[in-house]
Amino acid sequence: MKAIRRFTVRPVLPEPLRPLSDLARNLRWSWHPETRDLFQSVDPERWAASDGDPVRLLGSVRPARLAELAEDRRFLRRLTAVCDALNDYLTGERWYQAHPGGLPAAIAYFSPEFGITAALPQYSGGLGILAGDHLKAASDLGVPLIGVGLLYRHGYFRQSLSRDGWQQEHYPVLDPNELPVSLLKEEDGSPAYVALALPGGRRLRARIWLAQVGRVPLLMLDSDVEDNDPGERGVTDRLYGGGSEHRLLQEMLLGIGGGRGGRTYCRLTGHPAPEVFHTNEGHAGFLGLERIAELCDEQRLDFDSALEAVRAGTVFTTHTPVPAGIDRFDRELVAHHFGADAELPGIDVERVLRLGMETYPGGEPNLFNMAVMGLRLAQRANGVSLLHGQVSREMFSGLWPGFDPEEVPITSVTNGVHAPTWVAPEVFRLGARQVGAQRAEDVLSVGGSERWDAVADIPDQEVWDLRRDLREQLVQEVRSRLRASWRQRGAGTAELGWIDSVLDPDVLTIGFARRVPSYKRLTLMLRDRDRLMELLLHPERPVQIVVAGKAHPADDGGKRLVQELVRFADDPRVRGRIVFLPNYDMAMAQKLYPGCDIWLNNPLRPLEACGTSGMKAALNGCLNLSVLDGWWDEWFQPDFGWAIPTADGAGTDPDHRDDVEAAALYDLLEQRVAPRFYERGRQGLPDRWIEMVRQTLMRLGPKVLAGRMVRDYVERLYAPAAVAHRALDADTARDLADWKERVRASWHQVAVEHVETSAATATAELGSTLALRVHVRLGSLGPDDVEVQALSGRVDSEDRITEAVTVALKPAGGADQEGRWVYEGPLTLDRTGPFGYTVRVLPAHRLLASAAELGLVAVPSQELVEAAGVLMR
Fold first, then answer.
1. Residues near 354 by Cβ (< 8 Å), separated by ≥ 6?
2. DUF3417 domain location, by residue (predicted)?
3. b/e for 225-258, b at 16 or more Cβ within 10 A?
């Protein structure tokens, strides 16, 4: 029978054990081994049954056991030590506090999902895991971050398989009272709310749940409140669920409601107000509109002035390398939800729409693009690897017409992963024996070293024993999960005897686990099934493969890929060597990365923005075998991994490309990877393999840390954004907005009219310098409004300048009677071979973060270019 009402019954802890509740409510336990060990010792069996969730554990422990622990002096001493350690962590000075001044007082970090721990299932894949790692690393570094997201009552789905291998989704109801979160409350003890105005006079209200991630508060908005109508109650039902309007309301609640929730939190707690706002992907882009409305209301700024003030303190991170991965809404749908009868009534709807419309060549003018809005609302933007930054500059170059893609103002900060979360305890202990536990913890959380040289002193035998132990743990984990999966698929106990011999702890183990969009190519390994079978069943050098991944519930193509892989793995001939594990999540991942010898990644290049799973594997001594995409394109070296050759020419047929790249993968496994794993040196150990493991840890380890990533954000983006934010008080914001309006209105008058040099011939000697004179017309603008530049460098066969060097030219005197200015400067011929130059005029202002910010540039006319030709050949 079903219950007619549900309660959460909280345990009453004996007074000496009350600190356990505080420990359970701070999610630092999810990456702090001593805290987890303490909870495990409360009741090892119930700890396992609760999947390592302290809140569930404390709700299930028998009162007699609690009474026993309350009298256990040894346990109480451990409890005191762990509580003292948490207090030191929360209050002590860390990297940020010791950093030179000028850093922001606080940063608000908005994301639609956060992967902190499996006990708080509010994530679907890499974007959420990255956001969770960002918060945890910020906590370790002492960065005053406030996380803002949504609390989904069904989270993301749980995955199981039908008997024929088809993905099935289950959406368990999450009760916030049973999660490691607490309600944010007003001073009178009532819940704090935010509200959004909806068309037709309706309102969307949301409570604010608080998760404490070490030092970092994470605010999560929840629309499942009784005051809302049923439709509004369901806005935060599922992560990435529903149709267009449902998604639009989620993103309005995240951005606009999240902005209001952040202000409420700071008002109630005294937390410093954020000076910098970081939007993780375009989902939270409406935050910028909320801040514009706030400035218009509180400081009486007009829209354009408020826009400049908001842009100065905003950082936008794009994570997708393909337009299809961006949320886009119909223009009329967005217009319906803003304006006089809906949200932000003080802002003209046309101004809202103008921020997101694809009004550039190749865009769809009736679509509202969340990433485009994010870029227009942020003065600083970045991709998540060097290659992805390049791809993003090309993808969004239409927003900056007249500029080469490399000049588009989108930089890159390569992702990292939170090592204390992802490094297996056994790996940590091995490092701690070399350098001490405290130093090992600092190395993993804060980073800063270029190399981990202490790894060189670990004996080969210890490295190999560790790898074998981790592989054996994975084999046991796989068998347990596989047995549970087959029972869900309807198999009886008598059918499952074969599972006891699945995988072998002495066989080369390959891992492949990620979301299942088509570009990640889950089934590339199946391209030549006979060849794969030969690899799996090789009599002397066999391999075994562990696969996991979820397809989006609406992606039948992805589900077919899962089914194809599952059916192959079900074949009795190979099922002892390849397995598919359903319901890939953080808990599974923490077992999978350490136990694999090879981490496989074979996306269609360059569609993998970063691909952090291989980083987590590397931190555990697992070697990467990957297409040169994302972070691997940046840091690959043959000393610590393998690169799968790609056939990514523009004219390559997709099927042929898959055939070529699959064949390259099989060749690598047959000829290089497996032989190296199985070859033995004089001591009976795979010396060359162990050396690759050592190089992975020594040289890759320091690079892939989330601590390094967050430090990069602080120094390269947050600190400059804070300086820009402080510089734009109300009057300065008005002045900047007025200047931009004047420049845009006058730019049609700006022209390059004549260019001359001192060159008499078409050849010159390396190192010589030419005098350059440029005549420009500035119209109603003056020299203080512009910069005239000479760009020079080697040219290709079409006279395009590559690796350009830019030199600012100086005005020589005043304007002539016709309003023309003469600019002069030297042009140094510093490269041999074909050499060329051009000139251009750009807007210039001390508060611009980039010369391309306005998207305005004046260059010589085609007639002038043809008359000048290329300077040197």
1. none
2. 13-120
3. eeebeeebbbbbbbbbbeeeeebbbbbbbbbbbb
Query: Cα dihedral sign for 354, 360, 363, 365?
Result: positive
Q: Residue 606: pLDDT above 50?
A: yes
Question: Tell me, what's the pLDDT at 872?
Answer: 38
Which pair of tokens denotes residue 168? 């099935």
Q: What is the pLDDT of residues 792-849, one digit of tens each?
A: 888 887 778 887 888 999 999 888 877 899 999 988 887 777 888 889 999 999 999 9
Strands of the sheet with 810-811, listed across from one edge: 751-757, 769-777, 820-828, 810-811
HEC string of 417-473 equals: ECHHHHCCHHHHHHHHHHHCHHHHHHHHHCCCCCCCHHHHHCCHHHHHHHHHHHHHH
Torsion of CA 464, 469, 475, 480, to 10 degrees: -170
Residue tagged 């490092």 (tokens): 431
Among candidates 82, 81, 78, 44, which has minimal Cα distance to 61?
A: 44
pLDDT in tens, 430-449: 999 988 888 999 999 988 88
Is the whole model's pTM more than 0.90, yes or no?
Answer: yes
Alpha helices in 313-377 (DSSP H): 331-336, 349-356, 370-376
Give the model confidence (pLDDT) of 340-372 as tens digits: 889 999 999 999 999 999 988 888 989 999 999
Whole-Å CA distances, 855 to 355, 377, 747, 750: 14, 14, 11, 14
Tabulate helix, strand, coil % of the chain (nearest 5).
45, 20, 35
